[in-house]
């Protein structure tokens, strides 16, 4: 069952919190913050709210300041903010909207208005999230797609080189996949792709990235990961896939492993070395791992 959307109510008045909560508690999960500082702490946690009802006038950090911080952070800027305030001037509303709020509700609180506005912006937020997810994920396997991989991988490589920590990449290819399609049919081939994708994404850490690179090829980026640990993970993966038997079909994979080096400079260079290692694994008999050779 799909969980209810999350609404964060931010207000220093217990009475206002109770009034707002009474309007939306039946259809949404609720979180409460009694200050701007507490609001920022809550939105840094997972899962993030789908919408924030934000009081303008609070002691310490006011609602406008909170909204400005939320909209300046890539992790929170897409969360819709509705200001809830006793101020009723056009200038106040204009200021809130300029800061990035999607709506403005004035006090005294009218339940029908709150319910309608919240429903509208939650619906828009969920539709936006769905479109973003479709743009970033492969529709067959549910893994990230090549577009997302290339975007995030360049950031990860730059960060690893700048901070001098280890990063490893696996390029994975399903062995004899064309033969699987030709022998068992494309529906069976799709089932194999989904089963392999599910298996290689099992146990992946939050900082790692798993993507379908294209066709029967997959890529895993192990962030903050030593070469020995990445090799062990690749060995486990080989055995898991060999034991998988999706649709009763024997499936194996070949893996090219590359450790990020200073000489790589970009993700494209790291990917190229991993791809050459994968080619070597295929050439040497498949169902095996080959490690990339350091560039001269």
From TrEMBL:
UniProt GO BP: cell adhesion involved in single-species biofilm formation; negative regulation of bacterial-type flagellum-dependent cell motility; phosphorelay signal transduction system
Its needed co-factors are: Mg(2+)
Check the record and name the InterPro entries matching this protein: CheY-like_superfamily, Diguanylate_Cyclase, GGDEF_dom, Nucleotide_cyclase, Rev_trsase/Diguanyl_cyclase, Sig_transdc_resp-reg_receiver
What the entry lists under Pfam families is as follows: GGDEF (PF00990), Response_reg (PF00072)
Recorded GO MF terms: diguanylate cyclase activity
User: Which residues get modified to 4-aspartylphosphate?
Assistant: 55
Domain GGDEF: start-end pairs: 165-294
UniProt catalytic activity: 2 GTP = 3',3'-c-di-GMP + 2 diphosphate
What are the residue boundaries of the Response regulatory domain, all occurrences included? 6-122
What Enzyme Commission number(s) apply to this enzyme? Answer: 2.7.7.65
Q: Which UniProt keywords apply?
A: Phosphoprotein
Q: Which GO terms describe its cellular component?
A: plasma membrane
The protein's name is diguanylate cyclase
Organism of this sequence: Pseudoalteromonas denitrificans DSM 6059
Please name the taxonomic classification of the source. Answer: Bacteria, Pseudomonadati, Pseudomonadota, Gammaproteobacteria, Alteromonadales
